Amino acid sequence: MTESSFSSFQVDLRGIVDLLSHHLYASPRVYVRELLQNAVDAITARRAVEPDAPAWVRIEPPAQTGDGTLRVHDCGIGLTEPQVHELLATIGRSSKRDDLGFARHEFLGQFGIGLLSCFLVADEIRVETRSGDSPTIHWIGYADGRYSVERTDTARAEPGTTVTLIPRRGAQRWLAGHTVTELVRHYGSLLPFEVSVGGATATDGSLPWRIRPGEPDTARRTRLVDHAREIFGFTPFDIVDLRVPEAGLTGVAFVAPSAVSPAAKAAHRVYLKRMLLAENTDGLLPDWAFFARCVVDTSELRPTASREALYQDELLDSTKQALGDQLRGWLIRLATGNPDRLLAFLNVHHLGIKTLALHDDEMLRLVEQWCPMETNTGTMTLAEFRDQHGVIRYCVSDDEFRQLAGVAAAQNLAVVNGGYACDAQIIERLAELDVRIVAERLEPSALATRFDWLDPDAELALHAFLNTAQAALDRLGCEVTLRAYEPAGIPALYLIDRAAALGEQRRRTREQADDLWAGILDAYDTGAADSRPQLVLNHRNPLVRRIVALPDPGLVRLSVEALYGQALLIGHHPLRPADTALLNRSFLGLLDQAVGGKGAHEEP
Amino acid sequence: MKSRDDVWEMIEESRRMPHGPSRIALVEEALRHVDGLGDTDLAFAGRLAAVSAYGLIRPAEMLTAFSWCLTEFNRDPDRRSAWEAGSVRFYFNHALIAMAGSPEIPLDRIHAVLDDMDALYHRGGHRMHCVYRIRWNVASSTGDLDAMEHWYRRWVTAECDTEHGCFMNAALSVAHLSDFRRDEEAVAIGLPVLTGEVHCDRHTPRCLSSGMFTELMLPCLRTGRWAEAARAHREAYRQLAPIHQEGRGDIADLDDLAANLHFCGLTGNERRGVEIIERHADSLSHAPTPMSEMEYAAAAALVLRRAAHLGHPEVRTESGTLDAATMGRRLAERATAIAARFDARNGNTHISDQVTAVLTAEPLIDHLVLS
Q: What DSSP string runs through A552-592?
């Protein structure tokens, strides 16, 4: 018989710290950031109630302390005894700060986890702290989870906190003076008050983009250009000031001077309350703004638990949008005030701007007015095209444009090449947005409707020819029509619509599928007659005229097959095995005719 | 005629593009050239890229391409790389979601495809988790409640091998529990994600949490967790709206949109509901499957009936304006008619019961303040 009793699990803090160091933080070096952050938060909290309180952080590396420890002194708000118990005794509990977003402005809730990260490099941490006129408290914590708290008789001279780290074996190098200086500069160079390491100041104290009293614009610009060169390695095309009050955000965007791949990760440098959060944050700007790289400081955006990236929430979304608006405003100002600069910019970044135009009406207008497009009547903007031709007729692919541009021009049909980037979508969106703008995709078969019909008598006379021709191309799934069109030099055109291409895919897939899948595909067959590709013979072409007059059906067949093959080749259409076989046969057959042979074109 | 290299480049390029019409256009262009080149590997890669481009936006075309891949894969499985084989297995999910969402596909065919998928996983020694989950999915579209519960138990206990599996599983678990009115259990899984206690630090562009928030709205509402329900709706719609503006709109997105409309109809947010209907006016004409069309029509009909009842005047549609009552009635008829087609296939009335429940729903709260 045993008595039941409750015990607590022994939680091995060392183990948890190791876990953290491998999973939450990228490297032990973050301990400096966390200590700095704690000091900064404490100073901020004190100044909130006591605006004239001093503000400094002094760090003494082992070279100064002489006992191998690192000491960090601040003149912040300090902790009272109950606060020490509450916060330091429940270190793990405050780890939720980032997830829940409460205590974001409070120094208290964050202190514990900040200290926790110090166990990455220390076996023992001592905290001496005084809040206002409360007694000075000593807290000592060990990596195995034990801690003690006591009041001391010797009060600190001033409110504030001193944290002392007794290094872990093997971690001494992280506490060395030059390493600490390096890390303090890295994370805290923009802090608005003095941080010294071993007596030497390590902070610049001012945001590079802040407008300094009496400084001329050009001097500020030069300073910022240098800044861009230093951190991003380029001389910016332009500099755009950024400000989003709701996110407590200020900063600058540097416009890249050369083309940037839209797929490249846009690495922005983000400071959180003047402490460096990350040098390679993406997702701060809308995707379209890939031509800009930012340096910003924010007080309201939330970091992730690791404090190494921004947490995606509603505020980040609205900030992203606000930053996008400011970049867009810059573009609009260029368009109205400095069109030459705008053209230079578009020359480099047109791809991004067009992507942007897909979501943004003002950008769409900008593209319409300024971006040159290829058309079959020369290069011009969409606005110019519309002035001259009314309807914006366009091809969706470059290949299609190459095939049809010439013929369309001969029918007085102006066509824009929509095959570049997202040009086709831009045209479609333009028409969606503005009822005055009419856009039409040039469906190849629609082009054929502009061709002239033969008069009924002539058509009737050619009935036999058309039957033979159709019979020749039936097995290739192609329809033969006879029209008269310019340019007369073209004997035949092969035209295929999207619906025809899809129908072809379905038919061929179905043929090789098993019964199960054939049945499934049939269920999706709408039953509407698939439009078939067309071979449109040109009655204005002298060669075609002679072919239609041929008395020998075998020769007609051979000629039509050859025209079909030639139309495929000229139009860069794909050749299926059946097409290649036909090309071979017709070529040999024609050769046979040419050398006066007999029977080669007659099928067995 | 394009060279093999040209076509490879087109296929690669398409994979780098965001989902949408341009990606589809490029893949279709590549497919036209693929077969003439007589290169099976290229043809396979092109079809696979097409399956990916069509996704759940264009199910009919996706199934054609998938069927081609599957036939070729079965003909010579050893010729395919591990990545290609994995893709074929994965896209069974797409194929089955598309089929189950189309009442014209008979049950026996759906089950035959499920069995093929099952056999493929078994033969290769892959984890069965995915198969169980899609069986659950199909059971829910075919109104087979016993099968739903059975496969739900199987997939939540099976080992999962996808990176974001955890989130996806959690979202679908919430969906299942919500369907069976096990609201407290659903809330227990979903709420920590909403409050951020559990989150995915990687946060893919559209983290699967959006689906989770969508599923969480109803359980929160039915258990009187008003603030949580409002937050779930805000988060879900926030992540959803931009996807629609970019014209992607696949099945899952339209379903989520429908759920958000349903929420508006249940919470006295008719005005917001009408706004959403107007903002996504073209959604219905681009519905990828009858199932998603039905769900959207039913939820929109609920909002419009309520809005008309409260005296809301006209609603902007794709082709002009219409008074709310008339539009609501038409959408209700449309949803009911589609539900009847599902019932005929399924041999039960589960789908039309669901639609009727949405159409006749009454608000759970007079007016839930969202901000």
A: -HHHHHHHHHHHHHHHHHHTT----HHHHHHHHHHHHHHHH
Report whether pLDDT(B170) > 90. no
Q: Which of B67, B196, B234 sits opposite A513 (nearest CB)?
A: B67
Strands A194-197 and A122-130: unpaired
Give me the residue label for tokens 């983009």. A209
A397 vs B29: CB contact, 8 Å cut-off?
A: yes
Helix (H, G, I), strand (E, B) or coil at A536: strand
Give the C-alpha separation, A497 to A444, whole Å. 6
Structure tokens at B246: 């970019």
Q: Inter-chain contact A306–B245, Cβ cutoff 8 Å? A: no
User: CB neighbours of A204 closer than 8 A, spacing ≥ 6?
Assistant: A189, A190
Listed in sequence order, the DSSP H helices in chain B are 4-16, 21-34, 40-54, 59-75, 82-100, 107-124, 129-141, 145-157, 165-179, 183-195, 209-222, 226-245, 251-266, 270-279, 290-309, 324-346, 350-359
Within 469-498 of A, beta carbons closer than 8 Å to B belong to: 498
Q: How many CB atoms lie within 10 A of CB B245?
A: 12
Measured distance between the N- and C-terminal CA atoms of chain A, rounded to whole angstroms = 103
Looking at the complex, does the CB of residue B113 fall below 8 Å from at least one CB of chain A? yes
Phi-psi region of A205 (alpha: psi -120 to 50; beta: other; left: phi over 0): left
Name, in order, each residue with C-beta under 8 angstroms of A379's C-beta and a sequence gap of 6 or more.
Answer: A372, A373
* 0.95 exceeded by pTM: no
Residues in chain B with CB shorter than 8 Å from the CB of A305 are 201
Of the candidates B25, B29, B201, which has its C-beta nearest A306's C-beta?
Answer: B201
Does A588 contact chain B (CB < 8 Å)? no
ipTM of the complex: 0.84
Parallel/antiparallel/unpaired status of strands A479-483 and A534-538: parallel
CA B34 – CA A419 distance, rounded (Å): 19
Per-residue pLDDT band at A84 (split at 50, 70, 90): confident
Residue A283 neighbours by CB under 8 Å, 6+ apart = A310, A312, A316, A320
What percentage of residues in chain A have a pLDDT greater than 70?
Answer: 88
Residue in the structure block whose two tokens are 């054929």: A448
In terms of Cα–Cα distance, which of A272, A274, A300, A253 is closest to A203?
A274
User: Which residue in A100, A502, A516 is closest to B112 by CB distance?
Assistant: A516
Residues 245-264 of B with CB under 8 A from A: 245-246
Give φ, ψ of A130 to 5 degrees.
-135, 130
Q: Which amino acid is at B300?
A: A
Closest Cβ–Cβ partner in B33, B112, B234 for A574: B33
Angle, alpha carbons A556-A559-A561 (nearest 5°)? 110
Q: DSSP state, A529? A: P
CA distances from B112 to A517, B108, B119 (A): 10, 6, 11
- Inform me whether the C-beta atom of residue B278 falls under 8 Å from chain A C-beta atoms: no
Residue A1 has a pLDDT of 46
- For residue B329 the two structure tokens come to 């009635």
A528 in reach of chain B (CB within 8 A): no
HEC letters along A256-301: CCCCCCCCCCCCEEEEECCEEEEEEECCCCCHHHCCEEEEEEECCC
Nearest to B101 by CA among B296, B237, B368: B296
Chain B contact for A321 (CB, 8 A cutoff): no
